[in-house]
Structures are given as C-alpha cells and as structure tokens.
C-alpha cells in the first residue's frame, strides 16, 4: 500500500474569499454527479487557495489512483527539467542524437524526428491510439522495439496523430538522457520539491522516501504517458506549478518560458475538441485561454491563467473503450463544460 503525504498542505479558503459563489458551486456539483456517476473527486484552487474539494465514497483524499494520460503532461515537465539540467539541448534536438543505445534500423526509422515532434504528437509514427498496431505494441515483450520496427508513415511535423506510444518513446529518450529511472528523476526533480512524500506501509515508521508509483513496460522503462499514480491534491499542486510559471515556493522547477511555450497551439489537435501544445490540450472559452491535461475515463487538470485557477477531476477509469466512445457525458465530450459551470457561471457579481 502506498501513502502520499503533503509536507505543507494547501491553505483552505471559503469560495467567496476568491469571488466564487458557494451555492452555485454546490449546485454545479450536484448536476455534475447526475451526468458523471463515475466521478471520484473534484477540486478547485483559486488564487493558490483550495476553495472547493469533494470526494465520492469510498474514495479518500490520501488514496492515489492512476492518472492515465495526465502522465503525458507530467512528461512535459520532465522534458522541461531535463533541458534546464542541460541533459537535452532543446526541443529541436533530434531524438536520434539522444538514442545512443538503439540499433541502426530503429534510428533510421526515426530520422528527422525531434523532441518537439514528440511533444506535439506530430512525429509521423505508424501507430495510432487504440489501433491494432498499438495493441501489438502492448502485447509485445519490447514496446520500444515494436514501435520503431516500422518506418514513419508521415513526414515529421506533417500531421497530428495522438498516441501513447509517442510518449513511451519519449520515456526511453529521457531515461537515456537522465541516466536514472524516470520515476526517480520525476520524484527528485519534481514531486519532492513540490513537498510530496511517497511512503510504503512496511516502512512508514522509518520515514523512508520512495519514488512515485509509476508502472513499467516489459523492457523496464516507466510507461511514458500512462499509469502514474497520484492523489487529486497532488494533481492540484501540479496544476498550480504551471499556473505559477514553473515556480514553487520561490524555487524554479521548470525553465523560464516553458509553460508559455507548452500552452501555445503547436498542433491542430482533434477538431471540435481542442488544439494541442506540448503534451497539454489548449483552447479558449469566452475569451479565456486555458490548458488541460486529460486522462482516460475522466481524469483532468485544468489550468486557467487569467482566472488564476486550477480544476482537478478524477474518476473511475474501468469503462471500456466502446463505452467511452458512446458516452453522452458532457465533461468527456466538451472540455469547456467544467470551466463554464464551475468558474465562469459561479463567479460572484462585482460590486
């Protein structure tokens, strides 16, 4: 069993202290439960204060669940940190230059692909999300080998193609660059500085720190882009880090300008859903720019800079792909629904 603790918890404030209407927030939450029965939690941070926090039984605040593809946005942070550490030259560096231990055939199949192409999902790889090719990757004993065994199907930068295989390739590149397992690098460079402590039951009394729980692929790499386990409050801290331009408690964890660059529209994304930055979805609603990390089943971290706000949702992710594709849940279908109900429509009128 894992336990995740905050060294210094969020300051909790009443919604009205940050110009939010508590009654409207509660009404919006009841509506959300009716349309989203698999919801686990919802948290709102405004002006760096935790102003709304709800959990559905039997979920507990200290319980860590898989954040699914929100892990991709954590990968964004790790790339930025590796650049800040001088381990990656820039987003324009060819991944073939970083993949020193890969066979020549694999390197030939990623010729011209840069770190930026992986961050923007414009890599040109042959694997598409939820495709037969992706299932073959997950069934294989060497995911990286299966991903790179075939040539590119598009020129790098030509088109957007969302796929978790992309960020798993990024995991391999990053692991070679930082020379330690990514779970340790993420903990030492990101989560521990955020004041997060990971402990295990047999060692609780000893106070020993462990790295974040992050599932591994058969080849021993942490699964780039999936199955990191965090609590909703930790996700709120992660969102707040991006809201504060990569600075936490006066310490710069992400490079200057990295958040702005990550939240720019670099790819078309999915039509009718959102555009894509650097492993963050990006959009605009009612003149407000926002970015969000999204994970299968209803995991979200929204960052809304102009409102100085972060919204976190977590949910049961056991639904099948067919069920998710058939859902009419407005949260899943429309990324602006949450922003409208819980921030835009819940603001107190200015006096």
UniProtKB/TrEMBL annotation:
InterPro entries: Beta-lactam-related, Beta-lactam/transpept-like, Diverse_Enzym_Activities. Residues 41-325 form the Beta-lactamase-related domain. One of its GO terms (molecular function) is hydrolase activity. The keyword Hydrolase applies. Keywords: Hydrolase. Pfam families: Beta-lactamase. It comes from the Bacteria. This is Serine hydrolase. It comes from Paenibacillus hemerocallicola.
């Amino acid at each position: 069993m894992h336990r995740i603790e905050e060294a210094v918890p969020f300051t909790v404030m009443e919604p009205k202290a940050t110009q939010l209407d508590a009654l409207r927030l509660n009404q919006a939450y009841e509506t959300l439960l009716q349309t989203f029965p698999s919801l686990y939690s919802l948290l709102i941070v405004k002006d760096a204060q935790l102003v709304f926090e709800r959990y559905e039984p039997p979920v507990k605040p200290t319980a860590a669940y898989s954040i699914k593809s929100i892990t991709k946005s954590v990968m964004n942070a790790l790339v930025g940190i590796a650049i800040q550490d001088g381990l990656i030259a820039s987003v324009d560096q060819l991944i073939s230059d970083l993949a020193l231990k890969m066979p020549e055939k694999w390197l030939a199949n990623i010729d011209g692909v840069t770190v930026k192409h992986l961050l923007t999902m414009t890599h040109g790889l042959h694997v598409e999300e939820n495709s037969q090719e992706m299932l073959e990757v997950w069934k294989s004993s060497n995911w990286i080998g299966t991903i790179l065994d075939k040539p590119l199907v598009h020129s790098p930068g030509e088109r957007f193609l969302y796929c978790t295989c992309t960020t798993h390739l990024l995991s391999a590149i990053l692991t070679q660059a930082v020379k330690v397992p990514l779970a340790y690098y993420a903990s030492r460079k990101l989560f521990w500085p955020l004041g997060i402590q990971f402990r295990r039951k047999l060692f609780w009394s000893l106070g020993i720190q462990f790295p974040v729980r992050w599932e591994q692929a058969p080849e021993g790499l942490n699964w780039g882009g999936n199955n990191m386990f965090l609590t909703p409050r930790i996700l709120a801290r992660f969102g707040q880090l991006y809201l504060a331009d990569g600075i936490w408690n006066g310490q710069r964890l992400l490079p200057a300008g990295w958040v702005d660059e990550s939240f720019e529209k670099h790819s078309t994304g999915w039509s009718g859903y959102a555009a894509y930055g650097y492993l963050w979805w990006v959009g605009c609603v009612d003149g407000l720019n926002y970015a969000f990390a999204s994970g299968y089943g209803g995991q979200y971290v929204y960052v809304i800079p102009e409102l100085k706000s972060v919204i976190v949702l977590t949910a049961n992710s056991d639904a099948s792909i067919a069920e998710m594709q058939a859902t009419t849940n407005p949260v899943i279908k429309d990324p602006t629904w949450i922003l409208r109900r819980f921030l835009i429509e819940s603001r107190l009128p200015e006096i």
